[in-house]
């Protein structure tokens, strides 16, 4: 149980404990504010999204096939990878050989399949462009939250970590100054990049459109500036229609509290024009080659599982973590190799196997706070109680 | 060094399966309070403790021991032995030391609850040495088959002794009997009430007003699983108590950490510490409603808050008896 030793060590890590407390406090405040400002975007809409997602999960194979066809129709290339290995291979082949510069936006699925590490091992230069995720990359740590990966780092720590990309950075620099320097550094990478890799928050089965929610705007550069764009996403992100996919993004942002997000991008195929003699030309200002890789990695099987299926409804807003007592102390050090907290235990069971998740389940109090605040009202305490069956005897 | 989790879980489960309870206690420790009150043995309606209030001092001593083991290397070996020995020996009984004062403090709470119920005209019996633990731990740990066997045993006893109605006095027992037993035991038709529900429904006039200000810690099972949220508040407010709600309250209450106290004593205590800080920042008097919330929060408390079970206040005001 190496995770347990990590958690026990985390209790002694004052910086982490302080960071978690501040983050939890802020996230609770902004969610309450958002709920009172946009009450019409809460319960009823969330309930509609849950029912819609249930419909997709009951017929997942059909929706996957429809989505693949729709993606192809946009002029993009569609792939279905049965596991992490296959996904890495597909992305590796699209990227090709030689030392390529790759810019990435934050994506939990790419954490799940360890895509960045794989591409780095193949000799490519890979840059996370979400500020928090870049900090995690440079510090060689694990994201502490799906939306706020570096919430545990103090400003001084961020400065120390960022020194490796800009030696002039000093510990007394303000957050504004640090952000500006990261912007300056990454700007050059965006321009030079051969490939951009992003995740997705939703994908529409009817149109093949990919939705990406971001506040920094980095995902716009990632999907727009390099000549090749690859989007990697889990099949549970499929929504039946373009409208549903958009609404899902709205609900997810509202329930995390960061609403309205600065950007929601809807991307359908390569950049194109017909302005010169009505001749169809691709790759105008955006990428010429667009690829969408859908990842199964246990999801298809989980959709039919007696209790794990419900975790697939998760929109990964990460709010369950905020209310989870063990997570308040451990951050994502508890929950699995990629995901963390109560949602993480379920996702780990799906993507890494029930055996791995059973050990993690033992830390759960069964207190029910995660379910109480879950956007999709997923009965995580029930999932985790069932996972405990695999331990001991 | 962390405890060997599987061994600890196996030890806990083995104790419940073999002895019917996570911790064996003497007849006096379990039933002395009821004998003092001369509660009748059995009846249509019984007050059912599931041994939880009585278990508190023993659980504390046992968790203290586990916490010491967690800090030492030898702990791994001892607990490992424990899981195998649990089938022959009751490890917890051998190693636990408990003070008489702690036992009688818990007894006072049960006596207080029984007296208030009597005062408002509710008659009930008690099962004395026949009373069995509910088996809730087996369910929480996902040992469904062991739990089913245990629940069937408990239900059979209710049936044989003609018990039709149960008054439970804690959240875990209320939940497991009301919501889970019917799913595991065919034809389980015992009516399960909670004493706070009964009191709130009867809404008796307080015999004495209490002018105290308190904050309140909702147990997860009352607030989230059973929606028992308003009842304790109404009772306290009618008694004259002013309630200052903490930031995390009602259905968003923050768990005391108790459920993992024997598996991860250190982490459990840290969670309790977070909760004690949250409560203490609102008011130095804090009302708890579950014996295990009391137990775990008091492990972390270093005088920041005065933790008291709600029965302490209800006894004073509705029972007219200070404890």
UniProtKB/TrEMBL annotation, chain B:
Coiled coil: none annotated. Residues 214-297 form the Cysteine-rich domain. InterPro entries: Cys_rich_dom (IPR004017), HdrC_iron-sulfur_subunit (IPR051460). It comes from the Archaea. GO terms for cellular component: plasma membrane. It holds the Pfam family CCG. GO terms for molecular function: oxidoreductase activity. This is (Fe-S)-binding protein. It comes from Candidatus Methanodesulfokora washburnensis.
């Amino acid at each position: 149980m190496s995770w347990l030793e990590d958690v026990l060590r985390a209790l002694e890590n004052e910086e982490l404990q302080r960071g978690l407390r501040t983050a939890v406090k802020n996230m609770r405040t902004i969610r309450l504010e958002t709920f009172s400002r946009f009450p019409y975007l809460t319960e009823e809409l969330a309930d509609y999204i849950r029912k819609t997602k249930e419909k997709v999960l009951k017929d997942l194979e059909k929706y996957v096939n429809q989505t693949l066809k729709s993606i192809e129709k946009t002029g993009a290339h569609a792939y279905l990878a049965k596991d992490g290995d296959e996904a890495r291979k597909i992305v590796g082949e699209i990227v090709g050989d030689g030392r390529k510069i790759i810019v990435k936006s934050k994506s939990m699925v790419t954490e799940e399949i360890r895509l960045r590490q794989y591409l780095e091992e193949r000799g490519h230069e890979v840059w996370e462009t979400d500020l928090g995720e870049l900090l995690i990359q440079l510090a060689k740590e694990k994201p502490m939250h799906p939306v706020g990966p570096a919430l545990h780092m103090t400003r001084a720590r961020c400065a120390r970590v960022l020194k490796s990309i800009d030696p002039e950075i000093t510990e007394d620099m303000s957050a504004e100054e640090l952000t500006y320097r990261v912007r300056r550094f990454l700007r050059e990478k965006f321009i030079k990049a051969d490939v951009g890799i992003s995740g997705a928050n939703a994908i529409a089965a009817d149109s093949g459109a990919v939705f990406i929610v971001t506040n920094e705007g980095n995902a716009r550069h990632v999907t727009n500036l390099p000549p090749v764009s690859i989007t990697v996403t889990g099949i549970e992100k499929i929504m039946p229609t373009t409208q549903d996919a958009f609404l899902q993004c709205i609900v997810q942002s509202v329930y995390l509290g960061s609403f309205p997000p600065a950007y929601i991008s809807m991307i359908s195929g390569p950049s194109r024009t017909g302005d010169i003699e009505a001749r169809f030309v691709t790759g105008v200002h955006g990428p010429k080659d667009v690829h969408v890789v859908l990842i199964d990695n246990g999801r298809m099987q989980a959709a039919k599982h007696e209790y794990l299926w419900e975790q697939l409804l998760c929109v990964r807003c990460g709010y369950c973590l905020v209310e989870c007592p063990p997570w308040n102390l451990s951050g994502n050090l508890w929950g699995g190799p990629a995901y963390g907290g109560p949602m993480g235990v379920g996702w780990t069971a799906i993507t890494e196997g029930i055996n791995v998740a059973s050990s993690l389940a033992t830390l759960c109090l069964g207190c029910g706070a995660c379910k109480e605040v879950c956007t999709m009202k997923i009965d995580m305490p029930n999932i985790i109680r069932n996972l405990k069956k695999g331990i001991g005897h | 060094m962390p405890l060997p989790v599987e061994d600890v879980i196996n030890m806990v489960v083995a104790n419940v399966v073999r002895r019917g309870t996570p911790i064996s206690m003497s007849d006096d420790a379990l039933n002395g309070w009821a004998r003092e009150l001369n509660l009748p043995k059995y009846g249509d309606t019984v007050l059912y403790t599931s041994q939880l209030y009585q278990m508190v001092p023993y659980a504390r001593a046992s968790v203290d021991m586990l916490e010491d083991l967690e800090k030492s290397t030898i702990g791994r070996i001892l607990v490992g032995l424990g899981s195998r020995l649990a089938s022959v020996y009751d490890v917890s009984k051998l190693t636990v030391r408990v003070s008489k004062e702690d036992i009688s403090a818990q007894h006072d709470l049960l006596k207080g609850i029984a007296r208030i119920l009597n005062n408002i005209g509710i008659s009930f019996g008690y099962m004395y040495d026949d009373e069995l633990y509910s088996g809730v731990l087996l369910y929480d740990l996902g040992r469904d088959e062991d739990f089913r066997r245990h629940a069937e045993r408990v239900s059979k006893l209710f049936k044989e002794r003609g018990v039709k109605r149960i008054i439970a006095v804690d959240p875990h027992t209320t939940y497991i009997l009301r919501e889970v037993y019917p799913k595991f035991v065919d034809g389980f038709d015992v009516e399960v009430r909670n004493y706070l529900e009964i009191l709130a429904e009867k809404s008796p006039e307080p015999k004495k007003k209490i002018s105290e200000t308190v904050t309140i810690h909702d147990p997860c099972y009352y607030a989230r699983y059973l929606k028992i949220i308003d009842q304790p508040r109404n009772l306290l407010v009618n008694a004259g108590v002013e309630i200052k709600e903490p930031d995390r309250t009602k259905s968003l209450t923050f768990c005391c950490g108790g459920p993992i106290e024997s598996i991860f004593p250190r982490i459990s205590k840290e969670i309790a510490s977070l909760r004690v800080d949250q409560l203490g920042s609102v008011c130095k008097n804090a009302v708890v409603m579950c014996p295990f919330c009391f137990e775990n929060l008091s492990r972390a408390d270093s005088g920041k808050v005065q933790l008291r079970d709600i029965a302490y206040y209800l006894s004073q005001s509705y029972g007219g008896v200070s404890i």
